[in-house]
Amino acid sequence: MKNLKYIFMVLLGGTMYGTMSSFVKLSYTKGFNAAEISFWQAFIAALLLAIYAFSTRKNIKGKLTFGNFIFLLFTGSAIGLTNFFYYESVSYISASLAIVILMQFTWFSLLLEWLIFKSKPSKPELITVSFILVGTIMAGNILGAKAWEFSMKGVLFALSSSLTYTVYIIANSRVSKSVRWQTKSMVIMMGSSLCLFSINSEIILSSDYLNDKFFCWAIFLAVVGTTVPTALFASGISKIGVGISSILMTVELPVAIICARIVLKEQIGSLQIVGIVIMLASICIMNYYKVYKSKR
Questions:
Q1: Which of 71, 156, 229, 244 could lock onto 13 through a cystine, CB 3.0 to 4.6 A?
Q2: Which GO CC terms are listed, alphabetically (predicted)?
Q3: What value does the mean pLDDT take over residues 71-82?
Q4: How far apart are CA 218 and CA 74, in angstroms?
Q5: How many structural domains compose the chain?
Q6: In the predicted model, is pLDDT for residue 296 greater than 70?
């Protein structure tokens, strides 16, 4: 039952992260772009997490070694690239399609865990993933869409975000549990902002977009889409493992599609609703299986 706390944290983080594609796409109508948004989102989050980490350092024990520090910077680079690629993708394709492609991390992560760490997925995990894949196809309305309506550039950006997200999840689960989550989250966002600045410095250093309206968007996205989810993931993923975390985080799909319907007025049909139900049912079944197994 102790793991239920961490299961809820990862689930909540995925829910919050799922809203981002719609709000980021909405910010594009204000004249902003993925490079600007993703960097400042990470940078502001790093500042907020740093303030909290240093304000609580006397009350919570935890040691950050140089090796862990470098590894966390790498982990942050992975989530930074995920956000950038994902945000770029929604400028070319719908938010619904982008999240469907991002969801491929579900089986990417299990596959990489198997290939790299020899951690063979259980039969229930494989069955659940198969249902999730069916649900993603239905929820993303892939079967009803015309292939020539897709932007290949957008699809490649979304696929890249899925691959880097897989790296982030696996890396996050492998960080030493002795590192407190406040420090872990702060360093992850430092790595994210450093990575994004290194690849987009020319755009970021332009002062044309820096105004009150932009920083309102950046702060909102930093808090809702980065600071809180990063803290939840940093605390929860290492406790419950990459397998169940990758399953739980698929909640981003139904959340993203529902949010796209409300915020962006994207159409959602009956087939998509069925797909969402299949995904939610699969997540609940997997949670029940994990909790039941832990009691045995």
A1: 229
A2: plasma membrane
A3: 94
A4: 23
A5: 1
A6: no
Q: How far apart are CA 83 and CA 43, in angstroms?
A: 13
Q: Angle at the Cα of 245 (from 244 to 249), degrees rounded to 5?
A: 120
- Give 145-196 pLDDT, tens digit per residue: 554 466 889 989 999 999 998 898 788 777 766 778 788 888 999 999 999 9
Give me the helices (H) in the chain, please. Answer: 3-18, 20-28, 34-55, 66-89, 95-102, 105-117, 123-139, 152-174, 181-204, 212-222, 228-240, 242-248, 252-263, 270-295
Quickly tell me which residue has 């897709």 as its tokens. 150
Q: How far apart (Å, rounded) are the C-alpha atoms in residues 50 and 160?
A: 29
pLDDT at position 147, please? 46
How far separated are the first and last CA of the chain, in Å rounded? 12
Domain boundaries, position 41: 3-295
pTM score: 0.83
Cα–Cα distance between 116 and 106 in angstroms, integer? 16
Six-digit token string for 35: 């490079």
